[in-house]
Amino acid sequence: MTNLRDEGLRVFREMLPGVLPDGDVDFGADGFAPELLDIGVESVFGKLWTRDGLSRRERSLVTLGILIALRATDELSAHFRIARTNGLTDDELAEVIYHASGYAGFPAAATAKNVATKALAQE
Fold first, then answer.
1. What range(s) does the Carboxymuconolactone decarboxylase-like domain occupy (predicted)?
2. Within the chain, which residue ranges are assigned CATH 1.20.1290.10?
3. Helix (H, G, I), strand (E, B) or coil at 52
4. What is the pLDDT of residues 24-71, one digit of tens each?
5. Residue 2 above 70 pLDDT?
6. Is 46 exposed, middle or buried (0-12, 13-18, 19+ CB in 10 A)?
7. Long-range CB contacts (< 8 A, 24+ apart) of 109-116?
8. Percent of the chain at pLDDT exceeding 70
């Protein structure tokens, strides 16, 4: 059976190179809600991003649409960078934002544009 934590760390490192150090990572066992990042690494990156059925590129498109609608700005920042790693161009990322304006509303799309501008400038 695959270790979901190891798989999650591997996928995370592939999609956001340089963010996590090599080896096992302690996400801060002493802080508040210390298991939350472990749950995300295992269930989101270890279980969902490794599934067959959608490519990483397609998963990035779906994820961005959901995060824009939720106005999940912290996660959006990382996922705009992940989407680039997964093969989306800046023109395609802009199209995701334009498209989201019709379904999630202009304020959500404008927020996503601001987040994307900052996140993509970091690379």
1. 42-117
2. 56-121
3. coil
4. 777 776 788 888 888 999 999 999 999 999 999 999 999 999 999 999
5. no
6. buried
7. 109/68, 111/68, 111/71, 111/73, 112/64, 112/67, 112/68, 112/71, 112/76, 115/73, 115/76, 115/77, 115/80, 116/76, 116/80
8. 97
